[in-house]
Amino acid sequence: MTVTYVIDGSRVTGLERFWEVIGEAVNGPGGYFGRNLDALADCLGGGMGTPDDGDFDWEWRDHAVSARALGHEETARWLRQSLDRVDPTNRAAVRQRLDEALAGRGPTLFELIVEILANGTPPGGLRLR
User: Fold this and answer.
1) Which letter, b or e, does each residue of 96-126 get, where b requires 16 or more Cβ atoms within 10 Å of its Cβ?
2) In Å, what is the CA distance from 82 to each residue of 50, 73, 102, 119?
3) Does the pLDDT of residue 123 top 70, yes or no?
4) CA 79, CA 90: separation in Å to the nearest integer?
5) How confident is the model over 88-117, as pLDDT tens digits?
């Protein structure tokens, strides 16, 4: 039987809140399901609250609210924070992505997260509502 995890997009006000909302969707109050994009992708492999057999999907309700909250402004904030921690060999690439986000261009956090969820879940496993 397929398990459907519901992301309540109306509660997403930024990236930190997204991590809380998705953690609660999978593992209940205070639940964990990644705190960065790499961890999110890893969690999709099972064993972090999702069925090990991969029989689960996502329903992201009020996704338009999340798309605004995880738009270019939040993406720029996240990239700016990343500059302090990124390997020096990647700093120029992150700076370029930051400049794009500040100009309202390039992929947003919302788009990156949707891509991770869509690629890490069986076909048709992500429904945006």
Assistant:
1) ebbebbeeeebebbbeebbebbeebbeeebb
2) 28, 14, 14, 24
3) no
4) 12
5) 999 999 999 999 999 999 999 999 999 999
| Structure-token pair, residue 25 | 């969707």
Burial class from Cβ neighbours inside 10 Å (0-12, 13-18, 19+) for residue 14 reads middle
Q: Cα–Cα–Cα angle for 56, 61, 67, nearest 5°?
A: 110
Give the whole-number percent of the chain exceeding pLDDT 70.
98
List beta partners, residue 52. none
Tell me what pLDDT residue 78 has.
97
The vertex-109 CA angle with 104 and 114, nearest 5°, equals 125
The separation between CA 5 and the C-alpha centre of its own chain, rounded to angstroms, equals 14
Residue recorded with tokens 């309700």: 61
